[in-house]
Amino acid sequence: MKNISTTYPQIGYNLSQPVTVFDSGVGGITVLAQARKLLPGEDFRYFADIVNAPYGDKSTAQIQALMRENCRRLCALGCKALVLACNTATSAAAAMLRQEYALPILGLEPALKPAVLQHKRVLVMATRLTLREKKFAALLSQVAKDDQVIPLACPGLMEMVEEDFRSAKIYAYLRRLLDPYCGKADALVLGCTHYIFLRRWLEENYPCFAIYDGNFGVSQHLYKVLVQNNLLRQDKTPGKIIWDCSLPPGEERKRFLCKCRQDLAALE
Ligand code: DGL
Predict the structure, then answer these.
(1) Which atom of ligand 1 lies at the shortest distance from residue 192's CA?
(2) Disulfide: which of 56, 92, 235, 259 matches 63 by Cβ 3.0-4.6 Å?
């Protein structure tokens, strides 16, 4: 997690508002599940920009324009902290949004640091955009030795997770991607929140890799930011989730939000 300031001027948001967790699709639900374990009393809004997914194959300028619009819309609904539960949106737009909004904005980046400290060769699975952004290059040069990290772009994987993260198609994709590295790498960083749905399967099928993701780190950071800014909800009743997405009202939206609830239940 980047060492950013954790106190903010208290304008325009308050502790009765929800924490908003954003992703392009269902991936951020893995962050929501982790955050709810640390913050069971908080209300969360989960927002998926599924209409514009996948983000990983778009340009930086396209993601920045989408994130400006998403942020405007989510702040208008009331939001005391925004978690970009999407490595791709964080790489392309977190710095820009932090300049434009006086609101706690937390982001995700591939959990490279703990992996390179303990392992010789580290695979990083992420979207094409995350891997080609300056933010990733900067992280690599700060924490890793030459050739210690092998970036693996995973085009198409996000879409398969959206369909069904337990499909034979996904398992075949992962075997094609990872088998060549067995014995050649010893750690695997999941640098896209969608891939965290595959974590259990990867642990069972690839014991040769220690697996890392950034969800616990970002949830801990969220806890700290809420405490430091007096934004923790005081009510002792369990927090609720407001499910939301960029689809217009109708059957497709209902189906998608129903799948979101089921995917969360599969993680809890
Ligand atoms: N879940 C997102 C991430 O963490 C991106 C998936 C996509 O829209 O390509 O990078």
Answers:
(1) 4
(2) 92
pLDDT of residue 263: 97
Segment holding 126, helix H or strand E? strand 122-126
Q: Which of 2, 12, 14 is nearest to 229 (CA)?
A: 14
As to burial, measured by CB atoms within 10 angstroms (0-12 exposed, 13-18 middle, 19+ buried), residue 169 is exposed
Cα 134–138–144 angle (5° rounding)? 135
Residue to mutate (ligand 1; options 158, 245, 260; most atoms within 8 A of CB): 158
pLDDT lower than 50: segments of the chain? 1-5, 10
> pTM of the prediction?
0.94
Mutate which of 23, 70, 196, 260 for ligand 1? The one with the most ligand atoms within 8 Å of its CB, which is 23
pLDDT value at residue 2: 37
For tokens 């014995």, name the residue.
183
| Distance (Å) from CA 183 to ligand 1 centroid | 28
Cβ-proximal residues to 29 (8 Å cutoff; 6+ apart), any chain? 23, 46, 260, 263, 264, 267
| Contact indicator for 249, 235 with CB cutoff of 8 Å | no
Q: Could you tell me which residues come within 8 angstroms of residue 7 by beta carbon, excluding any fewer than 6 positions away?
A: 228, 229
From CA 42, how far away is CA 111, in angstroms rounded?
A: 25
pLDDT in tens, 83-123: 999 999 999 999 999 999 989 999 999 999 999 999 999 99
Place of tokens 């989408």: 66
- Measure 79 CA to ligand 1 centroid, in angstroms: 22
Q: Which pLDDT does position 235 carry in this prediction?
A: 82
The answer to whether the CB of 27 is under 6 A from ligand 1 is yes
Q: Does ligand 1 come within 6 angstroms of the Cβ of 233?
A: no
**pLDDT confidence of residue 37:** 96
